[in-house]
Amino acid sequence: MIAVTTVTQVPPQPVGTLLRAWRERRRISQLDLSLTAEISTRHLSFVETGRSKPSREMVLRLGEHLDVPLRERNQLLLAAGYAPAYRQAGLDAPEMSAVREAVRLLLAGHDPYPAVVVDRGWHLVDSNASAGLLLEGVDPALLAPPVNVLRLTLHPDGMAPHIVNLGEWRAHLLGTLRRQVAATADPALTALLDELRGYPCDQEVPEVEVPGPGDIFVPLRLRHRGTELAFFSAVATFGTPLDVTMAELVIESFFPADERTAARLRTPE
């Protein structure tokens, strides 16, 4: 006898419900949104309650004023019965050749300092040769694609045992991810945050990042072949993206935080 599994389809939420959720997430009143988006409060209320169907242009305008990510703007359009406005080409697509070239130039230009490119889910997209310095001693299982750089960093078999200030760096990464979850409402990122919170840490993890005397950033302090290396990082994104993939790419470049680290990177062993 063949067992038949019944799959219950969860109906998509109406566009009005989604828009109200985004407005409340951004802590914007109906009045404030109606003023900035130049529509009447009554009309906005009707849209949110489903009494009025918004036009395609209105969905896009409200998504813009609510700072909804491009991926979720497409979901709003689909919920309203319209086709997505923003394409999502793979990074290997022919039309993304200029983006690929820009990424390669940025990565190569940052050598001999480490740099990585990640997507919205913190999966490693690309890196330069110097990024390998950060990964020495990591369990090879964590380097099997797709590589999640947050998991790789905080996992007890990953970089965590080599990070001198693991408590500080953990707080920094979890705080960044927590803000991203608030901005995107992405359930996959929420699950990742819950997973990372469950990893062990034998150091105090500050709830609020407060600088000590003379501090201007949270450094990444890494034990490497008997030497402590210190880095700070800068994050870059592409300006004016109209493609979901391009909008979600993040380039993180690491810089030496002291002369000893700079000298070590300039003269690799």
From TrEMBL:
Q: Record's InterPro entries?
A: Cro/C1-type_HTH (IPR001387), Lambda_DNA-bd_dom_sf (IPR010982), MLTR_LBD (IPR041413)
SMART domains per record = HTH_XRE
Q: Where is the HTH cro/C1-type domain?
A: 19-73
The family database entries (Gene3D superfamilies) matched by this protein are listed as: 3.30.450.180, lambda repressor-like DNA-binding domains (1.10.260.40)
Q: Which domain of life is it from?
A: Bacteria
Question: Known Pfam families for this protein?
Answer: HTH_31 (PF13560), MLTR_LBD (PF17765)
Query: Which SUPFAM superfamilies does this one have?
Result: lambda repressor-like DNA-binding domains
UniProt protein name: Helix-turn-helix transcriptional regulator
**What is the native source organism of this protein?**
Amycolatopsis minnesotensis
